From TrEMBL, chains A, B:
Keywords: Hydrolase. This is Zn-dependent hydrolase. It comes from Halorubrum rubrum. The keyword Hydrolase applies. Pfam families: M20_dimer, Peptidase_M20.
Amino acid sequence: TISGERFRERFDRFNEIGATERGGVNRPTLSEENARARDTLVEWFEEAGLEVRIDEIGNVFGRRSGRNDDLPPVLLGSHVDSQYNGGRYDGVIGVLGGLEVVETLNAAGVETERPIEVVSWTNEEGVRFQPDMLGSGVFAGKFDLEFAYSLEDKEGNTFGEELERIGYRGEEPCEPRDLHCYLELHVEQGPTLEDRDLAVGVVEGVYGFVWFDAAFTGSADHAGPTPMHLRNDALVATGDVIESVRRIAGTGGDDLVGTVGSLDVDPNSINVIPERVEFTVDFRSYDDAVVDRAADRVREEIDHAASREGIEAEHEVIMRIDSQSFDDDVVEAVADAADALDADATRLVSGAGHDASYLNRVCPTGMVFVPSVGGVSHTEDEFTEWDDVVTGANVLLNAAVEKANE
Amino acid sequence: TISGERFRERFDRFNEIGATERGGVNRPTLSEENARARDTLVEWFEEAGLEVRIDEIGNVFGRRSGRNDDLPPVLLGSHVDSQYNGGRYDGVIGVLGGLEVVETLNAAGVETERPIEVVSWTNEEGVRFQPDMLGSGVFAGKFDLEFAYSLEDKEGNTFGEELERIGYRGEEPCEPRDLHCYLELHVEQGPTLEDRDLAVGVVEGVYGFVWFDAAFTGSADHAGPTPMHLRNDALVATGDVIESVRRIAGTGGDDLVGTVGSLDVDPNSINVIPERVEFTVDFRSYDDAVVDRAADRVREEIDHAASREGIEAEHEVIMRIDSQSFDDDVVEAVADAADALDADATRLVSGAGHDASYLNRVCPTGMVFVPSVGGVSHTEDEFTEWDDVVTGANVLLNAAVEKANE
Ligand SMILES: NC(=O)NCCC(=O)O
Ligand SMILES: NC(=O)NCCC(=O)O
């Protein structure tokens, strides 16, 4: 079993990087803080004897040799970028958990048949640059490198320039390669495990989801002398869409969730009718047909709101990932590991997207979840009991060793 | 009559300050551009022989002596601060129009019985610091100076510090004093004059209005794994209020208008449920009871949306000004001046607030409107035919001279 103390000590030190006053971390992709987190990781990987490689999109790999180094490796990992003012657990426990697996094997002098690699994927969160899960997406062949480099944040910085700036545009080609399997430890970010008082989730799959960038363009005018019937108010139309998203997601009797998370008004003045509103829509379900139907409906609602308000609408799908069901063998290996440790576990599916969703296209893939207190994530209040993190890491260790000896 | 050419030349030079690419101006209160506009004004006032005084809130006065300098003066003016990326006419024609009246009298060697003063009021727009019409409001005794100095913009800069920084915190006490009357030339900012193909509006009064700062605080969470029934989404509640404001304003069968003009989401990420939304509400009518009823209704709607969504609501009235009806004699003087010039004119009321609304508490007050093409204002597309501006300035000249000789 792993050392909960060593793991904890590393976890706390790591989260001093970009620590926020309210107890979270602020390390959005390719920020200064993200760069420092990467530097620390590389240092720790090297200290643990891992051979470090950086690929063209900035994914960081650390490799521990196996008895038979020609066999495809077992890959363990997650991400260390964060939301703006996000939580300390999200992603971090999967990467440092992978490192802890290696340290445990090192300390016990255990060799595995196959090599084990630990990876930290670039831009999982998708908060500064969309789409999310970009590093794993390029690795899996879903996006090409040029597309990734050309993405822009709200300030107009490109992903390629920012990657270069922080010094993490590596040499290694970023493309699918032979992997025995991929395992990711992550916080659940939802309420299921806590509600049922369980320590471990054996993840069977991940929701599919769609992301829209949308905008309305009406006409700015004075809030006083402009009669109601002469208005072309981009925010009134957006209000309709916010309501529609809630209604579409709330009333299907299915697992669909829908969110308008980002919204920017121009000119954003108290006494000016809003001319332009840019906003996003996020829909998710384990059933891809449900996601597609929701996407169709919201497109209609956006167009409808625009025509009623007499304004222009734009909407573009910036991300569509199908729901994934993980490999039966890997899911069994995770379930067996939880059993062997007598952990209270259940099988579940993930509403959050994960790098594992893309890895599932490349190799047999599975995930281990640990509970999120209050089901809360993507906020500084994110919290998981350390005991649960340790249990999750032990499940990872056992499943990884089993797979690495196949 | 005034010199349309001299006036035009000044108008164009003045609007080079803070000119935007799309043909508007960006000179929000106490910005660098606003400071440069003030400097230019002071220079031109002095060139025209006016005695310049700056008061404690930064209102700029220029005085032309009368035959009897002890008589209360006739005051002409408006404002030179702008909306963010606002129009070239809004406010500017009233201040430069007042200066043009002086130049015309100078050129013709005409002395008036009473002194004539031209004023540029500080922070009419209320876009960077709320409330609006602050300089005239303090002058009229509606707000006290300390309140004004303590106001903060979105970055947390105080009004007092910013006024000091740009060097326009003057010595002259800002308080009501004896004025014979106040006259303001302004663009209509609404559609009435253009719709009826008229050159001049004789303004009989101004709508009353109320401004709210409001906010919802819910809880941030992950847009994926958080089921719809466990959400406390600040933006969904705001969507309800946007709809309510439109409904309250659109269905009364009265003149009520309502606008949500400013809205900021936190954390504003595509895959995070919005935790906090801050927004504004603006309601206006010529009937104060209608404004009060709308204010009550929107307060209820805000509280209702919060309780349905299970979140916290805040709302605060940051501005309430009663509707104003202007002095009969001054309104007649404006109507007579328009008649004498054979201008196509009508009487109307203003949906936009004006410094004249506060001056109406201090002295007999009236306004002259000229048409806004398309009824458009508070945007870079704001436009008025120069002939109409000239006609309006001539009405101002004639009314001012009549009053200054009483
Ligand atoms: N796990 C996680 O937070 N992923 C970010 C991408 C998403 O699901 O929105
Ligand atoms: N006239 C004008 O634009 N005033 C600004 C204050 C307001 O009416 O909103």
